[in-house]
Write a structure and sequence with these properties.
Tumour Suppressor Smad4; two-stranded antiparallel ribbon; elongated; single chain; 111 residues; 10 strands; mainly beta; four-stranded antiparallel beta sheet
Length: 111
């Protein structure tokens, strides 16, 4: 069974919505489609000093998650879905750098 398609504004595990460039020519549930390699601008800050620097986690790039299907192409890139992961290399304590997409459009299943 497929996984719900990810869109601009869908939430991630860190608590922030997917923000950044998405495919504005393809709308899913009225929102631009999110794709593998789309860059998310996470506004969630790291812990303040002395534990961390207090800077935002982002930017992060969307990567395939477990069970990803890369055959649905939107605007030249594979569609992102529930469970795909935004890797945020600047995310530090208390959150890990992997930031899974936790919601998508339930009426559009990919895979």
């Amino acid at each position: 069974m497929g996984r719900p398609a990810a869109r601009l504004g869908d939430p991630t595990m860190h608590g922030s919505a997917l923000l950044g460039a998405a495919c504005t020519t393809v709308l899913i549930g009225g929102k631009p489609a999110w794709r593998i390699t789309d860059q998310h601008t996470c506004s969630i800050p790291n812990a303040p000093p002395p534990a961390c620097d207090g800077a935002p986690h982002g930017p992060g790039v969307t990567t395939p998650g477990p069970g990803a299907t890369l055959t649905t192409i939107i605007g030249g890139k594979p569609a992102a879905c529930l469970g795909d992961i935004v890797m945020e290399p600047h995310a530090l304590v208390p959150l890990p750098p992997n930031n899974p997409i936790v919601q998508g459009e339930p009426t559009v299943l990919i895979g």
